[in-house]
Design a protein that fits this description.
Mean pLDDT: 91
CATH class of the largest domain: Mainly Beta
Distance between the termini: 89 Å
CATH architecture of the largest domain: Sandwich
Strand content: over 45%
Number of strands: 20
CATH topology of the largest domain: Immunoglobulin-like
Order of helices and strands: EEEEEEEEEEEEEEEEEEEE
């Protein structure tokens, strides 16, 4: 028989939920269920403890997916409790970093969050960005990348992403690309006296 039955549990996300019963026998085994489905031990997540007449269920690193109705079955008896998880607001794990790119190249600003489904707003110089072919956002799980294609001087500025009440900021600098000689002047050019001389070089940029 149950001496002490389950009680409802409400905890914050990422904390460990502990459900506990007391039975009349030190050797009796119990079965734990969640929403009618039997639970199996999973180290670091679902753990079951038997200590004298006490039976405990540990739910570690809780998330909203652990919410539900938990049941402890002892023979033909059972007791039930509700586990409620208080969801934490998303946080910024990896901050934006200042970035410099040559004009015409792709710039990339990356941030990592605690949650992949977080609502993130991106700004440039405190004006919310409108995404286009020129400025695109890619999301890979908890990572978000702001990509600026063929960066121009007008793209330089202070970029920020805002998640709830958290803000991460970085400066994007767009530099003039280096100019290199593709074809150089010859070391020596021989010409007849009185003729015109023409010298040609080829550069890596056409706008110089």
């Amino acid at each position: 028989d149950f001496v002490r039955k389950l009680e409802d549990c409400e905890i914050k996300e990422q904390q460990c939920a502990v459900l506990e019963v007391e039975v009349t026998s030190d050797i009796a085994d119990v079965v734990w269920q969640k929403d009618g489905i039997q639970l199996e031990s999973s180290p670091g997540k679902i753990e079951m403890e038997k200590q004298g007449p006490i039976r405990k269920l540990f739910i570690r690193s809780t998330s909203v997916h652990d919410e539900g109705e938990y049941t402890c079955v002892l023979g033909d008896q059972e007791c039930t409790a509700e586990v409620t998880i208080i969801e934490l607001p998303p946080e910024i794990l990896t901050q934006l970093q200042d970035t410099s790119v040559p004009r015409g190249e792709k710039a990339c600003l990356e941030v990592e969050l605690t949650k992949g489904d977080a609502l993130v707003r991106w700004f440039k110089d405190d004006v919310e960005l409108q995404f286009s072919e020129h400025i695109q956002l890619s999301i890979d799980g908890k990572r978000q990348k702001l990509k600026i294609y063929q960066a121009e001087e007008s793209d330089a500025g202070i970029y920020s992403c805002r998640v709830g009440d958290q803000v991460s900021t970085a400066r994007l600098t767009v530099e003039e690309p280096q100019v290199e000689f593709i074809t150089r002047l010859p070391d020596v050019t021989m010409l007849p006296v009185g003729s015109d001389a023409e010298f040609l070089v080829e550069l890596s940029r056409p706008d110089v």
